[in-house]
Amino acid sequence: DNDGDLDLVITGMERNGTSLTRLYRNTDGILLLDEGNSEALINAHNGDLAWGDVDNDGDLDLALSGENIIPEGGLYNVTEFYLNDPPGTLSLAANLVLIDNDSGDPLQIRRGSLAWADYDEDGNLDLAVSGRDPWFNAVLKLYRNRPAGTLTEDSGFSMSSTQRVDGALDWIDYDNDGDPDLAVTGRTKLSAHRAVVFDNRGGSVVGVSVEEDNLVGLSGGTALWADYSGDGRVDLLITGVDEGGERRSLLYDNLGTPDANRNPDSPRSLNPAKVTGSRVLFSWTAGEDVESSILTYNIRIGTEEGLDDILSSSVALGPGNTGFKSDFLLERLLTAKPRYFWNVQSVDGAFARSDFLPSDEVFAIEQFVSSEQRVRDLQEA
Predict the structure, then answer these.
(1) Quick one: CATH architecture of 8-252?
(2) What pLDDT does 210 receive?
(3) What Cα–Cα distance (Å) separates residue 135 from each residue in 57, 94, 112, 145?
């Protein structure tokens, strides 16, 4: 809801066997059920959730997939999108549907993953989708977001039905060439276990750079990138069950990327914040990076220099908390105070971060005094 606190959405199955989706709004560190938005979301389990600004309007929208079970009986796959407009209000985007090029029908999946990334670097978040369709076929597809808010299957990303996997997805620029690459692990239609990294070559995810010769195929687990060795080359952790039924966690050190990633430059400058009632608009001049042509940004807002007690910059490994835009609208009524502080850092495609600018920008929240004005009676007027 753009108030500076991280909120939480969950899906799963209740004790009575019905599907459930719930959204919890974070108010000063206390998670409270948001009944209105929870009612707007379809109940689901055995799927995935992914926040991303699909329509590029500056707030987070929600993608949801999984299975729905109703008390009266019945089981069906669901894949839906919810737009966040105005911020803090989710509504079903009925016209935003994933069309399967193979069948021409809407794509409904379960048991898979959803992962946003701007892999073609046009400034809009694209979507990777994996899972099982209603006929239990493995699904692995990419959807370009062009224009913003319209998802169309990328026909250039194709493979045989027996090569597609239904498991975990994770994007990052692992080879430091400036565009996000995709790690995938899971099971194929024929139940073969597979782990693979798809290389992004100038906005086209067509090449397989790391195949089963180097990676052990696991299913039912997770794929996660991070530079755990601190050498400027992101490494890969995969978990799951191998074909022998053994549970495994495997960490792969990235030794094949010749050049270490260089951190992006900080934004060049911060513009004066604009305060209007309960809204504060922050903007800045874009940063630069040698490898990545498009950056995301991470903002912090605090009550003292260097603090982020209003909006935290301590986010998980991934894009910055404001996305691609070089502005951010905070929708929160702040206490009247002569000095608040804010700053911004750049984040590149490998999720390396620049320094914050040397000094924070300052803004003030004035005390608003309301006044009641009487309107004369119509007769008197």
Answers:
(1) 6 Propeller (2.120)
(2) 65
(3) 36, 24, 14, 27
